[in-house]
Amino acid sequence: xxxxxxxxxxxxxxxRSDELPPNRFQTSATVRVVINDVDHVLTLExxxxxxxxxxxxxxxxxxxKGCNRGECGACTVLIDGxxxxxxxxxxxxxxxxxxxxxxxxxxxPHFTRSSRLSSIMMPSNAAFAPPARSxxxxxASPRVTQTPTPxxxxx
Length: 155
Hints:
Elements: E1 2-3, E2 6-7, H1 13-19, E3 29-35, E4 38-44, H2 50-57, E5 76-79, E6 82-85, E7 98-100, H3 113-121, H4 130-140
Parallel strand pairs: 3-7
Antiparallel strand pairs: 1-2, 3-4, 5-6, 5-7
Helix pairs in contact: 3-4
């Protein structure tokens, strides 16, 4: 085909394949993490968040999906002892890390010590969701050996 004296030809399939850059994007990532003192090796898509890995792949549903923007704190977990919002962290970035979820803070099958502690130490109208309050208290203070008795409302 000629346009204004210039010949224009469509590239052949061979020419197109040579011009395409090699696939630089990984389709899966292998993640090795310790979650609540249990080793896990998972193969995930790189776009999977830590929250989705915990809830959907590992069935650890104590970490909640709230706002999915990091504002509410319902997805708070500890990574190497530091509080983070799991909805904002890509699971692939946690390779080699130690993660503690709300289930990891429980004493046995029931969530006792931490839930009592957070209800006593934090006001009920705090800006953090319950998992965040528990992680906040647990990470900020040494382990409590005796559960404090709440003061009565009468004084």
